[in-house]
Write a structure and sequence with these properties.
The chain is built from one helix and nine strands. β7 and β8 form a beta hairpin. The chain binds S-adenosylmethionine. S-adenosylmethionine binds next to β7. InterPro entries: TrmO-like_N, YaeB-like, YaeB-like_sf, YaeB_N_sf.
Length: about 160
């Protein structure tokens, strides 16, 4: 591990000299609109009674919403695009106590994917109105899935499902 220090790091934090190269292609399917214009205004985790937010899909992905209104809760994945990606150890409390990145839900991670369980309020064409997000306005949207407990697979059972 290369110990490199930048001025925005807290005591005890460690950073990896990780390559910036992209080795996987993620296509954004739309944009998330929230009332949170700065990171300080974002809650640490979204609240289901929080403000309405909008998942605005690109027109070419709008048809992929077919059937979505059958579900009250959705899992939303998004790209925390303003995050640094090189911290291995983090000190969330700024007190020198460090925790590994993978033991945190911090936005700072090698692949800054955010995951929130949201409540679907309504669909307006290519846009879903939801509650429960914690991300900045204009955060890129990666994926939407029905919440797994409410979802019954539509494909035929596999032997592996029976055990
Ligand atoms: N709920 C998600 C999860 O658990 O994977 C994200 C949790 S993360 C702690 C939420 C915080 O990330 C917000 O409070 C804000 O400080 C920060 N954040 C939100 N949107 C961001 C963005 N687009 N880029 C970087 N940081 C962001």
């Amino acid at each position: 591990m290369t110990v490199k220090k930048t001025s925005d790091m807290r005591d005890g934090e460690a950073v990896l000299d990780a390559p910036q190269a992209q080795d996987a292609f993620v296509q954004f399917i739309g944009t998330i609109r929230t009332p949170f214009t700065t990171r300080d205004l974002c809650p640490r985790q979204g609240k289901l009674e929080g403000p309405d937010c909008r998942l605005e899909l690109l027109p070419e992905w709008a048809a992929a919403l077919k059937g979505i209104t059958a579900f009250e809760y959705l899992d939303v994945l998004y790209w925390l695009h303003m995050s640094r990606r090189d911290l291995v150890l983090q000190s969330p409390k700024s007190n020198g106590t460090t925790t590994g990145t993978f033991a945190l839900r911090s936005p700072v991670r090698p692949n800054p994917i955010g995951l929130s369980r949201v409540r679907l309020i309504r669909q307006e064409g290519p846009t879903l109105i939801v509650k429960g997000l914690d991300c900045l306005d204009k955060t890129p949207l990666i994926d939407i899935k029905p919440e797994r407990c409410a979802f019954t697979p539509q494909a035929p059972h596999k032997d592996a499902d029976k055990a």
